Amino acid sequence: MTIHQIRIYEIFEHNKQFFHDRFRDHAARIMKRHGFDLVGMWEAQTPERTEFVYLLRWPNIAAKETAWSAFMNDGEWAEIKRATSAAHGRLVGAIEDRDLSPTEYSPVLA
């Protein structure tokens, strides 16, 4: 069954453009190389923080876990994170992650 995954990152106003540049120019490209299906990306504002929210689609949990493992162990991604953090400081605060399974009455059926 197809699942979706929602990721919510706390980002910081003083350096959020560097976060967006890194995600757009590097993370999304490397994620696709490892089989990520990026459905959409949004920015949200709450009274407490600015958030970057993105939605992923997976054929199953095993595919998600395999892709995430490959991405997190990708040498190019590790170097990009190191370099951008050194240049611009911490780009991400708290991270929330949820797997979403459609209800039987959802218009987004597997």
Automatic annotation (TrEMBL):
Pfam assignment, any one: NIPSNAP
InterPro entries, sorted: Dimeric_a/b-barrel, NIPSNAP
Domain of life: Bacteria
Gene3D superfamilies: 3.30.70.100
Coiled-coil annotated residue ranges, if any: none
Domain NIPSNAP: 5-107
Protein name: NIPSNAP domain-containing protein
Organism in which the protein naturally occurs: Devosia nitrariae
